Amino acid sequence: MKTSKQKNHFNDKPSRIMTIGMAVTLIIIGVTVLVLLFLNISESGKDDTDVIYDRKYAFIANDKDDAFVVEVYNTAKAEAAGKGAYLELIGSELGGTYTSHDLMIMAIASGYDAIFVEPDDTREMTDLINRAVAKGIPVITYMTDDANSDRQCYIGSNFYLLGKEYGESVKMTDRGDECDILILIKESLPVTSRNSFQTSLMSELTSDKKDCTYNVEFEAIDTTSTFSVEEKIRDILLHEEKSADLIICMDEITTTSFYKALVDYNKVGTVDVFGYYNSDTILKGVERGVINSSITVDASEMGKSCINAIEEYRESGYVSEYVSVPVQIIR
Amino acid sequence: MGSLADRITNLIHGISIKRQLLFVFILTALTSSVANFVIFLEIDDRMQSVDAVYDSNEQNNELLALVENVHNNLTNYLMIKSTDVMEGYYRSVYDITDVLDGMDTQISGQVAPAARDDIKNMIYEYLAVADETIQGKRGRNVEKYSANYEEASRLYNYIRDYIISLNDKQFRQNTNEYSHLRASMKLLEVSVFVILGLAFLVGIGLTVFFTERITYPLTDLAERAERISEGDFEVEIPDNKWTYEVNILSKAFAEMLVSIKAYMAREKKNLETQRDLRERELTMEAEIKEARLKYFQAQVNPHFLFNTLNAGMQLSMFEGAPRTGVFLKNVSEFFRYNINKDDGESTIGEEVALLDYYFEILKVRFGDVLEYVKDVDEDLLPVRIPKMILQPIAENCINHGIREAEQKGYIYLTVYKRDEEIIISIADNGVGMSRELIDSILQGTYVRDDSSNENNGVGMNSVINRLRLYYNRDDVLEIVSEGPGQGTEVIIHVQDNAG
Q1: Do residues A327 and A296 touch, judged by C-beta distance below 8 A?
Q2: Percentage of residues in chain A with pLDDT exceeding 70?
Q3: pLDDT value of residue A126
Q4: Interface test with A, best of B1, B4, B9 (most A CBs within 10 A)
Q5: How large is the ipTM?
Q6: Taking CB atoms and an 8 Å cutoff, what residues of chain A touch B117?
Q7: Which residues of A touch B201 (CB under 8 A)?
Q8: pLDDT tier for residue A6 given thresholds of 50, 70 and 90
Q9: What is the secondary structure of A233-283 as a DSSP string?
């Protein structure tokens, strides 16, 4: 015998049962849709075909680990992407070790639409730049220039100006009547840039203290070779008979290595150090007084200028031969 | 949600069992089919993704093999310079050019966007240099082909390194992708389990619900039918609108039950009426039989008496005594009435005639002391009334009203119609009756002395009972008396049958 409750269950409230049934069905559909949506969203996360570029530019760095160069590249890459171009750091993903000459050959053979290169003041590099230009690939030099080549534009600081800035910083130290200055430069730094730097430095140093004698010496370091910077600095600090009173480091890797070496070998205070760039390590060195001061070129500005220059060239066929990037002294 | 449910419920309401079953089967099959279909599509999509994961690596390896083949052929040609090697070289160049032409070199993606374009351009550059090398070899320009071969080799190494690097990078990316796909497949596995489980549960739920929905009304109806068959006609048949057939069946069943109940009520009423009628008939018959028995007891062998009276009447005529003859005739007619009439019914005319005979006989006995006065509406004479009603009443009037009075006795018989009734009144101017006596007579509690020889045997009780049974009303007879010395009137209210 059925109860009246059961009677109601079947005769009076069928919609309630139907509602429950439909709710369960909807839950299933909802769960299915949500799960599939989640799976598809997860899968779409790995989709790598979102941006299509119109053209490709090659960025060739002598030392792809240099923080300054990395910042220049990253800024330039972002700027290029905004203009529909892809900027490739040539050789960054290759297994072997390639010189900037090899990378130039690769960039030319790969048919890039433009090449940004840090020339090394060799005849071969000049020829490669000329070869690229001859193939219709515009070349822009940055950091250092190869004025003898057919490059379209140079973007970077003026070494004469840099020498003047370092001179002002050095003058602030009191080293008596005689001061030995050792300038650590990259091997790739062109002689013309070196001469320009030395001239302006000496000019600035002797402008006030004409009775002081400054002995300036250059030491070229191969920053591309593994451990060569560290070894060279070790030699300077520990083995040379007469160490310099004052060291000027002209790039980020050398500045960082020298700062670490001074601390490691307990030589802090024995020598005045003037660095280059504003990485966290270098800023810490300046803050602690290990590094007297540092001069930096605005890497972001340099990166943007590279892209702006090539875009200007593409649009008009002309571009300024030299685009200056401002320098800043960090004390 | 609720209104949607109502709408669907209304759609399903009142449809046939066949359609409901089809609806259930299709719904459950559809639920599981949709779930399976969606899952199948997803699995297929995943499988295609898995298949495509290492496609790029395979393409890279194929390209690398082709480049190696070209360079090996170039090197062999420079060393051997045979036609076969030359043909091999050109075939390999043809093969690689074919692949390069179909190569997608769009600069896009996150993994080395320009790498494939770089490789393609470098291979074209390499092929150009290699071609110059071949030309140099053919022209036996050793310096030229040596320099070109050196450049070609350098380019070959770059290309090789490029492809290997790209392969490595893509392999890492693909491995990540594969791991991701594996994880997603695992998740899909769990999802499939959950979805199929839910679909299964919903299928079961729907089947159980609809099966119960369809079978319950039938089972319920069967149970109610069984109760009815056991004699319980108070069972309610619920209105079931869910299933068309059951709805029809329920309605028919409910109507049938109502009809049965109405029929039974009618039958019961008829039986009760018949039983009542029969009971009254039996009682009346018993009363008549009792009256007749008493009459026969009072008059031993009435036929003999009747024949004797006739002989006396003829003798008196013969001997010249006509009054005696009339007297005997009246006596004879009086008894004839009692003997002949046998069905318990008579007419007012016959009853009045009997009363006439009776008073003619009494006149001989009492002379002028008793006066019989009648006023009868002739139209009412054929009206049927129970037999032996008026004479016993008149006899009671004489015996208990007039005989005990000192003055001359009058008996008044009046028959007339008033409204819808026929009034038969028998009144005397005798001693009258008290209220208590009237009540005891009407209630049947009065006991009189039956030893009196003056009574012909039919008492008032019998008259009252027969009248009440015949007309099925208690107030058919009333006795009115203003008190001692005021006379008594017995009034019979006869229902006009004609009316």
Answers
A1: yes
A2: 84
A3: 94
A4: B9
A5: 0.74
A6: 56, 110-111
A7: 24
A8: very low
A9: HHIIIII-SS--SEEEE-SHHHHHHHHHHHHHTT-BTTBEEEEES--HHHH
